[in-house]
Structures are given as structure tokens and as C-alpha cells.
Design brief:
The chain is mainly β and about 800 residues long. Strand 30 and strand 31 form a beta hairpin. It has five helices and 38 strands. The chain is about 5% helix and about 50% strand. It starts with 18 loop residues before the first helix and ends with a strand. The chain is globular, with a radius of gyration of 27 Å. It has one domain: TonB-dependent receptor, beta-barrel domain (Maltoporin, Chain A). One of its GO terms (cellular component) is cell outer membrane. This is TonB-dependent siderophore receptor. It is found in: Cell outer membrane.
Length: about 800
């Protein structure tokens, strides 16, 4: 197993950075420090205090002097704050996801983690997998390099059709959302019955965009593999009443990965605008576009379905062919929102309304040399007595296919209108929310060609066998013998319509109690045109219609014994569309299913500096798995029994002391399957879900009392622990747990309000070899290697 592979020789792209690279980094860092000394000397007469000071307490005399100086130069101080003030406190205060009426994060009866812009900058976040490491309840489920990723929350895989949002509106999750225009990322753990429609139960991920303000920032970055990055952030507030605001981001990246020939590039353009129509009405809009070209990296499969691959390297691209095409992604997300009050009358002041609409579009040319199974090996065609052909062969041999699926189009469109207000009846206040929502999703993929189509037009995507290779040998270059094959014409594959009535009453009772009752009255009509015809050979596919009208409740209670302490409990029910079976089981779709959740927790915010949360949850859903149906070893994919997810979560975010800021998360989850028709699957932890995961990131300011204190220098250590994860449903095969250690530094010459900030961050500084996930894709299980050491450098200049 990979745990024992640290003593093996390492390929070039997977090795620890060379001494020359570290020397260059050290020289770069030394130049930063030297420039800081010079800058400090040049600005020694400035009176602008840093936004974050060392922990030494000033004397009363110094406070008085600082106050007089600040009063004397107030205009200068104001200018500096507008351009360059930096708080970097990692403390979240607001949440959009799962919060229809704007309740402060401290008082919401949900488990959530907020990753702020400062934290994303310090960790060099470019894609979602860089951010989810801040919440221990979230893990990668199938997130290969060069391709959009899927993730799981509390052991439940996110539905990419409905599980991701931007500003509370659902987007097509089959994309890598750009981070250049994001202010924060919100993770809601558990069911969000009122917030979302029919989706998976694990939780939601919501991106919140930056709003217009006066800003001019240039961000440049690189890494030790030669990648380069640039981002220009421009914003302004203008108009006679300062009623207009605009924010632009333009970014480009030359991507150099640790995997051979998996490099790529991307370009990003975003816009955010605000228009204050009246004193009570504001119109906001957002648009973002990204073009990404990159080869994707396929995962490994178990050898013979029973052994984790060994003597493998992160730099290896399985089945690599020099003539293969990269993936091309063209995506855009746009939205418009109107917020308005009702008037100045006493009762109207308590009410407001918002209406929003959004469109998300993902166009993908999906190209990969796909390593899968061993169907062309004799050892894998022995029936039930031999290894299953949908895994790699026991000796490491695997088949490779030329897979091309051009013109995949996925669109999510959503519109909603909600009125929020309060009515007081004696000692009881009813905080009401009522609204409606429409959601449409369509998927268009290459499909069946007409009868008169040329012979080279395929039925759906191009999926042509090239040959076989072995994980222990060098890749074999095969001729491009399938270049003449083309995918079938694009056809409507899925059409999903949802409409809902949203209701919520948050009842404020005496003695700081609140009762919350609400839910969604949802109409679901899902047309799936890709259901395999299991009755006859023609037509090959038939229409599968899901038509349901249902009530999805969400109930909660909170108690605030103190202003900064909330104790809560909640109960929710969620409906999810059934998963698709693997192709070797027929590729059919299973019926929708319900998930139920009960949760209790507490939130505490001492001194409004540090948010500490903890909760216990219990969730239950059906269990899906493959089952042998006959003596020939044929398989079906069924739902029988259930899986129960019980867990405990703990997190702390914000300012621990004057010199230490934290983002910490711990999750212990028992996700057990029971009641299936396969006894060996019962009483087992589900695949890809560790029993324990921890994440810790710290921002440390060296106190002045130490000799190595440097003004503006912060050290940023990080650590994560993941315990063993299982790769088969009977828990006989697993990958080992691992510790990852990271280290970074942020330096702002002249103090926190300086115009220049330098950053360095190194992930996996001990170059640990590990399997990052054992997740599934369309029912098949894969294992993916984690990234070796990666060192990144950046410089940010605020004009």
C-alpha cells in the first residue's frame, strides 16, 4: 500500500523541490525581509497604526499620543484604510446558505463553516479542493487533476446538479468555479430543506461574490514547477449619491501540475455591479466567465478488485498518449437580484422583499485516454471464479480507451421571490418568510445518430479500445487509430423542472427561546431520456419520468442563555434523485429516495472574536450497492437496507489571541451500512468516509519580545489528519490514514496597512505519499493519489 511507498524512488514531477528551488525561495524571502526593513525606515514617521498589532499592551501615555496623532491626520488615515486595510481575522459573521431571513450566523440552527477571502488568499486557493480542507466533514469523492471535482459532506456525495450555489442560486456543478471574484465560500453541513430543492442530503456549498468598493489590486504568483498566475481586481463607487458600484476581475493562469503532461491554462473575466435605486431598493448583478484547457488525470482501480496499487507515483499519467486531446471547459454564471423595503410606515418597516434569478451554463469537450478494467485480458474473463473485469487485473494490467464526448451542455436556471418580515402578538414575535421558486435543469449530450448516419458516427460518445498497459511498466504509445470516429449528435438527455412554495415561521418566545417551523411544498417533474431499455433491444433508451408533489419539512429550536451563546436542535427531511447504476449493471437510474436528519449543537462567540461550534448529528438514507444476480456472476445495482451516519463536529474560527488567528475543524463520523441482502456489506463503514478527520490552519504574529520579531511577518502552519478509508463495501480493502503538514508565511513591509503583501505557502512539506480518496464515479470505485510537496509564491500590490 502507498503508506509503505515513501522509500521508493520518486519521479521528477513528484519529488520534493530541488535545493536550487529552495535556495531561490530563500533568497526571495530574504529580499522581502530586506525590503521590509528599508520600507520601515522610510515610513518610520507615518502615524498609520497597523490593523493588527503585536500582543504587547501599549501604555496609557502612548494611547493618548496615538489618539492625538490620528486626529491630526484623519484624512490621510481614511485614504489608507479605503485602499489597503487588512483584518485577516478569519472570523465569519454572516451566512447566506440555509438562511432565508438573514439571521446572524451565531443564531442559525445549522452546522456551517465559512472560509473567508483572507483565508483563501493565505492558502493560495484556486479550485474547490483547495478550500474544502478547512472543513473536516468534507472530503473529495472523485476529484481528478484537470477535471471538475465531486465532493462528499458527512459521507454523502454532493449532487452536482443541485448541490452548489453562487449567492444562494443553484449552478451547474460540472465546472471549476473561479475564485478571483469570491468573497467567501460557505459550507452547510447537513440537510438544507428550506434552502434547496430536491438534492443530496449531505449539505450545500455556496460561493459569495465580492461586492463593489474602491479597490485596485494586482496579484502575481508562481510555483516551483514553473506555473504562473496573474489577477487584476478593480472596483469603484461613483455617482452623485454614490449609488453606483462596479467590480471587475481579470485573471490568467499557466497551470503546471505534478502529473506528467497534465498542464493547462485558463482565462477568467468577472463583473459585479450594485445600483442603489432608492433609499430602500438595491439592484445587484454578477457575471463570470472562464475558459479552461487542460488534460485530466484518471484514477487507479484496485488490482483484481482486492489489492490497492503499489509502487506507483503521483507523476504518472495512466495510459498517456502524445496525440490525445485536452479537456476544454467554457462556463459562465450570471445572476440578478433586487432587494427592497415596503415603506416607512411602522408595520412596513418590518418587511422586506427580494427577487433573484440566475443562469449557469457549462460547455465541456470531455477528452481523456481512459484506463478502465481488464475486459481484454484472459484472466478477467473466467466468470465468477476469476477477478471482476471492471477492476484492473491482478498483475496491474488495464485496458485504455479513447474517450471523447464533445459538446456536453449542462444548464441550471433558477428564479425566486421571498418576502420577509415580522408580526408581534403580545409577548411573541413571528418572524415570517414566504416565497416561491422555479428551477430548471437541462443536460444535452451526444446521443443516437440517425439511421442514415455514416458508419463512423458513434452511438453517443466515442469510446474505442486502444490496447492494454500495466501500472508497473512504461506507457505504450498506440497509433491514433480512432481519429476518424466522431460522437453522435447532441440530444436532450435530462430535463428537470421544480417549483416550490417556501414557508417559515421563526417564533421568538420569552426567555430567549425560538421555535422555527418551515419547509418547501415542492413539485418535481424530472424527465430522463437516457434510461436503458431493459425490456427490448429497440429503442436502446426510453424516457424515465419522475413526477412527485411533496412536503419537505424543516423544524428547529434555539435557546440563547447568553447573547453570545446559542444552543439548537433541528429535524429535516430531504428527497434526492436516485443514482445511476454502473454500465456493467445496465446503467439504469434508481428511484428517488428520502434522507432524514436530527441534529443538536451549540455556538459560542467569546468577545466577538472567535466562533466556536459543536454538534451531534444522526442521518439515515437507503444503501445502494451491486449484487450478484445469477451463477454466471451477472450484477445488478440495487437499493436495499440503509446507511446510518452518526457524527460529532467541532470547529473554531477567528481570533484566539492577539497574536494567533485560527481556522480549526474536527469531525468524527460513523457511516454504517445495514440491512442489505449481502451479509458481508452489513455493519461496515461506507467507502471513502474516514472515521476521523482534522484540519488546522493558524496565522501567527511573532510577538515583539522575541529577537526574531519582524513587523508585518506572519507564519502560517497547517496540519490535517485523515484516518483509514475503505475502498470496498465489505471493508476488506482500505487505504491508510495520513498526516499532512503545511507551512506558509505572509509578509507586508511596513505593517498590515502596507501596499505590498508577499506570500509563500508549501503544502505537504514532508512529501507524504497517500491516497486522497477512494470515491465512486457512476457506481465504479477509483483511488486517486494525493499531491506531493508544492511550493507557491505570490506578490500582491494595492494601488
Amino acid at each position: 500500500m502507498i503508506d509503505n511507498a515513501t522509500t521508493l524512488p520518486v519521479h521528477n514531477f513528484g519529488k520534493f523541490p530541488s535545493p536550487s528551488v529552495f535556495a531561490a525561495a530563500c533568497l526571495f524571502a530574504f529580499a522581502f525581509l530586506a525590503s521590509g526593513r528599508i520600507s520601515s525606515a522610510q515610513t518610520s514617521n507615518t502615524t498609520n497604526p497597523p490593523a493588527r498589532t503585536s500582543p504587547d499592551k501599549p501604555t496609557k501615555k502612548s494611547k493618548d499620543q496615538d489618539a492625538k496623532k490620528s486626529a491630526a491626520i484623519a484624512p490621510v488615515t481614511t485614504t489608507v484604510l479605503v485602499h489597503a486595510e487588512r483584518n485577516d481575522d478569519y472570523l465569519p459573521t454572516a451566512i447566506t446558505v440555509g438562511n432565508i431571513d438573514g439571521t446572524p450566523l451565531l443564531q442559525t440552527p445549522v452546522s456551517a463553516t465559512i472560509v473567508t477571502r483572507d483565508l483563501m488568499d493565505d492558502q493560495f486557493s484556486r479550485v474547490l479542493s483547495d478550500v474544502v480542507k478547512n472543513d473536516a466533514s468534507i472530503g473529495e469523492d472523485y476529484a481528478p487533476v484537470g477535471y471538475y471535482g465531486d465532493f462528499e459532506i458527512r459521507g454523502f456525495t454532493i449532487d452536482l446538479a443541485t448541490g452548489l450555489e453562487i449567492n444562494g442560486l443553484t449552478i451547474a456543478g460540472e465546472q471549476d468555479v473561479p475564485f478571483e471574484n469570491k468573497e467567501r465560500v460557505e459550507f452547510l453541513n447537513g440537510i438544507a430543506g428550506l434552502e434547496s430543492g430536491v438534492t443530496t442530503a449531505g449539505g450545500l456549498i455556496n460561493y459569495v461574490t465580492k461586492r463593489p468598493r474602491l479597490v485596485k489590486t494586482l496579484h502575481l504568483g508562481t510555483d516551483h514547477r514553473g506555473g504562473s498566475y496573474g489577477d487584476l481586481d478593480l472596483g469603484d463607487i461613483f455617482g452623485s449619491r454614490k449609488q453606483y458600484g462596479m467590480r471587475f476581475n481579470f485573471a490568467g493562469e499557466d497551470i503546471h501540475t505534478y502529473v506528467n503532461d497534465a498542464n493547462g491554462w485558463r482565462g477568467v473575466g468577472t463583473f459585479g455591479g450594485d445600483w442603489k435605486l432608492t433609499q430602500q431598493a438595491t439592484l445587484t448583478g454578477n457575471f463570470e466567465y472562464q475558459h479552461l484547457v487542460q488534460h485530466s488525470v484518471a484514477g487507479y482501480q484496485l488490482l483484481g478488485g482486492a489489492v490497492v496499487p503499489y509502487q506507483v507515483y503521483p507523476s504518472t499519467m495512466l495510459g498517456e498518449q502524445p496525440w490525445s486531446k485536452p479537456n476544454t471547459f467554457d462556463t459562465f454564471n450570471t445572476s440578478l437580484r433586487l432587494d427592497s423595503g415596503f415603506g416607512k410606515d411602522s408595520w412596513r418597516r418590518n418587511w422586506r422583499v427580494f427577487a433573484a434569478a440566475g443562469l449557469s451554463h457549462s460547455l465541456i469537450d470531455d477528452n481523456v485516454i481512459y484506463p478502465y478494467g481488464c475486459y481484454y485480458e484472459a484472466v478477467c474473463n473466467q466468470g465468477p471464479s476469476g477477478p471482476p473485469p471492471y477492476f484492473f487485473a491482478p498483475d496491474g494490467t488495464y485496458d485504455i480507451y479513447d474517450y471523447r464526448d464533445p459538446g456536453e451542455v449542462r444548464q441550471d436556471a433558477q428564479a425566486e421571490a421571498v418576502a420577509v418580515g415580522s408580526v408581534t402578538l403580545g409577548p411573541i414575535r413571528h418572524n415570517l418568510a414566504i416565497g416561491g421558486e422555479l428551477f430548471l435543469r437541462s443536460v444535452n449530450l451526444p446521443g443516437t445518430p440517425p439511421a442514415n448516419a455514416p458508419a463512423n458516427v458513434q452511438d453517443g460518445a466515442v469510446y474505442a479500445y486502444l490496447g492494454s498497459e500495466n501500472i508497473f511498466q512504461n506507457n505504450i504509445v498506440y497509433p491514433d487509430s480512432t481519429a476518424n470516429l466522431v460522437a453522435g449528435p447532441r440530444q436532450l438527455y435530462e430535463d428537470d423542472h421544480q417549483s416550490a412554495l417556501l414557508l417559515q415561521d421563526r417564533i421568538a418566545l420569552p426567555w430567549h427561546f425560538q421555535l422555527i417551523a418551515g419547509g418547501r411544498f415542492t413539485s418535481l417533474r424530472d424527465h430522463n431520456f437516457g434510461q436503458p431499455n431493459l425490456v427490448s433491444s429497440t429503442p436502446a433508451t426510453v424516457e424515465l419520468v419522475t413526477d412527485k408533489l411533496l412536503w419537505l419539512p424543516q423544524y428547529a429550536a434555539t435557546w440563547n442563555p447568553r447573547e453570545n451563546l446559542t444552543i439548537y436542535g433541528n429535524y429535516s427531511v430531504m428527497l434526492s434523485l436516485g443514482p445511476q447504476a454502473p454500465f456493467w449493471a445496465g446503467g439504469y437510474y434508481l428511484p428517488p429516495f428520502f434522507t432524514r436528519q436530527a441534529e443538536v449543537g451549540a455556538k459560542y462567540e467569546p468577545g466577538k472574536r472567535l466562533l466556536i461550534t459543536g454538534d451531534l448529528f444522526h442521518m439515515r438514507a437507503p444503501f445502494f450497492y451491486p449484487q450478484v444476480t445469477d451463477a454466471q456472476g451477472d450484477l445488478s445495482f440495487i437499493s436495499a437496507g440503509h446507511e446510518t451516519h452518526d457524527g460529532i463536529e467541532f470547529s473554531a474560527q477567528g481570533i484566539a489571541t492577539d497574536w494567533l488567528h485560527l481556522s480549526a475543524s474536527v469531525a468524527g463520523i460513523s457511516a454504517i451500512s445495514n440491512g442489505s441482502e449481502t451479509p458481508s456489506f452489513n455493519g461496515k463503514q461506507v467507502i471513502n468516509q474516514p472515521h476521523l478527520r482534522t484540519d488546522l490552519f493558524a496565522d501567527m504574529l511573532i510577538p515583539r519580545k522575541y529577537a526574531f520579531h519582524i513587523v508585518g511577518l506572519h507564519l502560517m502552519p497547517g496540519w490535517s489528519l485523515t484516518t483509514r478509508k475503505f475502498a470496498t463495501r465489505d471493508d476488506r480493502v482500505s487505504v491508510g490514514g495520513y498526516n499532512l503538514f503545511n507551512m506558509g508565511a505572509r509578509y507586508t513591509p511596513g505593517g498590515e496597512n502596507g501596499r505590498v503583501t508577499f506570500r509563500m505557502y508549501a503544502d505537504n512539506i514532508l512529501d507524504k505519499r497517500y491516497w486522497k480518496d477512494t470515491g465512486a464515479s457512476y457506481g465504479d470505485t477509483f483511488v486517486h493519489l494525493g499531491a506531493p510537496t508544492t511550493v507557491r509564491l505570490s506578490a500582491e500590490y494595492r494601488f
